[in-house]
Design goal:
The protein is an all-alpha fold. It has helices at about 15-25, 30, 40-70, 80-85. It is built from four helices and no strands. It has one domain. It comes from Mikania micrantha (bitter vine). InterPro entries: bHLH_dom, HLH_DNA-bd_sf, PRE. This is BHLH domain-containing protein. It is found in: Nucleus.
Length: about 90
């Protein structure tokens, strides 16, 4: 038994792992098109990491764009208050 596993935690079966990997594959745009082809668990996990990284980069890029936009708008303008209400 792994030292990371807490005592009394339910054991995950191989079937549950296969089901979870299959569900994860369906969520990934890169693998969704290949639904009929079962990707290996390592491929699904690798693509998951890539997808999360791309989402993180997209969030950073959007945050930068929003910061630049806000810096060009007068703080008391109606546009600034609408933008601030959307992000709070």
């Amino acid at each position: 038994m792994s030292s990371r596993r807490s005592r009394g935690a339910p054991r995950i079966t191989d079937e549950q792992i296969v089901e979870l990997v299959s569900k994860l594959q369906q969520l990934l745009p890169e693998l969704r098109a290949h639904r009929s082809n079962k990707a290996s668990a390592s491929k699904v996990l690798q693509e998951t990491c890539n997808y999360v990284r791309s989402l993180h980069k997209e969030v950073d890029d959007l945050s930068d764009r929003l910061s630049r936009l806000l810096s060009t708008i007068d703080d008391d303008s109606p546009q600034a208050s609408v933008i601030r209400s959307l992000i709070n």
